[in-house]
Specification:
The complex is a heterodimer of chains A (309) and B (246). Chain A is mainly alpha-helical and 309 residues long. Chain A has a domain at 27-232. In chain A, 77% of the residues lie in helices and 3% in strands. Chain A contains 14 helices and four strands. Chain A has helices spanning 2-20, 23-48, 56-72, 78-100, 105-125, 127-130, 151-174, 176-186, 188-193, 198-224, 234-247, 253-270, 276-290, 294-307; strands spanning 136-137, 143-144, 146-147, 226-227. Chain A starts with a helix and ends with a helix. By secondary structure, chain B is of the alpha/beta class. Chain B folds into two domains: 1-79 and 165-246, 3-Layer(aba) Sandwich (Rossmann fold), CATH 3.40.50.300; 91-162, no CATH class. Chain B contains nine helices and ten strands. In chain B, helix 3 (95-107) packs across helix 4. The termini of chain B are far apart. Classes of the chains: A mainly alpha (309), B alpha/beta (246).
């Protein structure tokens, strides 16, 4: 009951936001939602499948770039370019899985980082196709039956897609498959001894995770009307990782919250200083020292301590 | 028919020969205890049976089917379940979820993406019943990490038998248990259905004879004796190893 109330309240706030907030904050909220989706997709890998990756920007950027290239270079319609971005990201996840799943732990992390740098290198170096460092400017927001060019309709499009994705990911984490992923995170040998094909489970987790990261990437490109190699940069991957850790890995909604907090801080701090990355580093160190299980972990500790004095 | 047949299995780790041609066969429904001091090769033999390591040479067959090269999960799907010498559970999940996953593995309830685990009522009620049968009903909602060591050892056995395996491998289930807990665990194993073939590693002779229909003794990667209680107790070589007179 309390939970249903809380969820309705959150939904109401997101629905009412464009009426109550100045358009600058609607834009900021849009960005928060897009990164929340990115962080939740990464949490499927880190918090559930136990695969810490530093290459998640690759799926984000693959989705965004594929869509942008089809729109700008092939003049495809959004009906084709947008789903194609999702397919490209998912395939990217599958390819990364094929190459990286032979390793675990920090080795897995390094392989995903290296693979993502390859994708970044292509976007950066292939000037004739991708525009290199200059990126691809002038992308128009989509018309799906109605135009989503203005901030408010685009915000509702993003909020709807992120909401539905969050629901789908939540359902997956509650399913037998999601439980099996958490089992694999705890002990691969135990799960194998019970008949689970660990590799296939992790492969599927990476493909699913990449799909949602790609969706976030497509929305990101539409939001900015622009894409550059920064979307594929290791800093984007690292930001995602910090959002997951700051929010609480393995809680799905924690990383969404972490994304909101970090995007808000980035916006706030960037208007005062150029040293945002330094502050981000401090946030990361502070989280690992004082709240290793993130915001959600802090909250659970706090509420259990209150209940049992 | 042999539930398990091992023919000339060897395993070397670099220069160390952990198994030097072990041949052993276990009839369906039989309870075999593998005795042997630490380092004798018992656990390596278990790993070769369950697929956690692959034999360097030789053949392993489960109910007549050659499984020598199969990965562990494929062997599990053919009816083999095991426990580990060092407790191997899913520590951040609840006891109930540990058992439910064991049942999901056995029933091939994998890659079910959308329906919540909670709506698989039949799986949940079977898991609850198993826990009740083995006196762990109160622990169902506790996180495995917070259980006592003795309880964890019990949960691991319940997880292994949840799948109703044709062949159950127990790797020193009593290791580290108090005498009282050991009695409880021995009792548990004795209560298992008689048609379940069991191979168990044990260092304690008294515990071994409590459970075993037949005992096999390993020493330095070789099987040195096999037989019933009287035969093993009378075996000079076995008592030498156990009393350290070698």
């Amino acid at each position: 009951m309390a939970r249903a109330l809380a969820i309705s309240a959150i939904v109401a706030v997101f629905l009412a936001a464009p009426f109550a907030a100045p358009s600058y904050y609607v834009g900021l909220l849009t960005k928060m939602l897009i990164y929340a989706l990115f962080a939740m997709s990464l949490d499927l890998m880190i918090g559930y499948a136990g695969l810490a990756s530093l290459g998640h920007a690759a799926f984000f950027g693959l989705g965004g770039y594929t869509m942008a290239l089809l729109l700008m270079r092939a003049h495809a319609s959004a009906w084709i370019a947008f789903p194609a971005g999702l397919v490209a990201a998912t395939l990217g996840g599958a390819v990364f899985a094929l190459l990286a799943l032979r390793a675990r732990g920090s080795y897995f992390l390094m392989i995903t980082l290296a693979l993502a740098q390859v994708v970044w290198g292509i976007a950066f170096g292939w000037r004739t196709l991708t525009g290199g460092d200059d990126g691809l400017p002038g992308i128009k927001r989509p018309v799906f039956l109605i135009s989503f060019a203005d901030q408010t309709p685009f915000y509702y499009l993003v909020a709807t897609l992120v909401g539905l994705s969050a629901l789908a990911m939540w359902a997956v984490t509650r399913s037998p498959y999601g439980l099996a992923l958490r089992g694999i995170r705890d002990s691969e040998t135990r799960m194998r001894a019970m008949g689970f094909n660990v590799w296939r489970h992790q492969f599927a987790a990476m493909a699913i995770s990449a799909f949602f990261a790609g969706l976030a990437g497509c929305l990101f490109v539409y939001n900015n009307r622009f894409v550059s190699p920064d979307a594929l940069h290791v800093v984007t991957s690292a930001e995602g990782l910090i959002m997951v850790i700051a929010g609480g890995a393995g809680t799905l909604f924690g990383p969404a919250l972490g994304a909101g907090v970090i995007i808000f801080l980035e916006d706030f701090i960037s208007s005062h200083t150029q040293r945002w990355l330094l502050v981000l580093g401090v946030i990361y160190v502070a989280t690992t020292l004082f709240a290793p299980r993130g915001i959600v972990g802090l909250w659970t500790d706090f509420s259990t301590r209150k209940r049992k004095p | 028919m042999s539930a398990l047949s091992i023919e000339g299995v060897t395993k070397s780790f670099g220069g160390v020969q952990a198994l030097r041609g072990v041949t052993l066969s276990v009839e369906a429904g039989q309870r075999l205890v593998l005795l042997g001091p630490n380092g004798a090769g018992n656990t390596t033999l278990f790993h070769a049976i369950s697929g956690n390591i692959l034999a360097s040479s030789g053949r392993v067959a489960l109910f007549g089917e050659d499984i020598t090269r199969l990965p562990p999960d494929a062997r599990a799907r053919r009816g083999l379940a095991r426990t580990f010498q060092i407790t191997n559970l899913l520590p951040s999940l609840s006891v109930l979820d540990n058992i439910r996953l064991a049942l999901c593995g056995a029933d091939r309830l994998t890659f079910r993406f959308f329906k919540g685990m909670a709506s698989y009522r039949e799986t949940t009620s079977r898991a609850t019943r198993l826990l009740a049968d083995w006196g762990l009903a109160d622990a169902a909602d506790r996180t495995v990490r917070n259980l006592s060591y003795g309880e964890q050892r019990q949960v691991e056995v319940v997880m292994a038998i949840a799948a109703a395996p044709r062949l159950l491998l127990l790797d020193e289930p009593t290791a580290g248990l108090s005498p009282a807990e050991t009695l409880g665990l021995v009792d548990m194993v004795r209560k298992l259905p008689r048609d379940m073939t069991i191979v168990m590693i044990e260092h304690d002779m008294d515990v071994a004879f409590e459970i075993a229909d037949r005992v096999a003794v390993m020493h330095r990667g070789e099987l040195i004796a096999e037989g019933n209680e009287a035969e093993i107790r009378a075996n000079k070589q076995v008592s030498d190893i156990y009393l350290g007179l070698e």
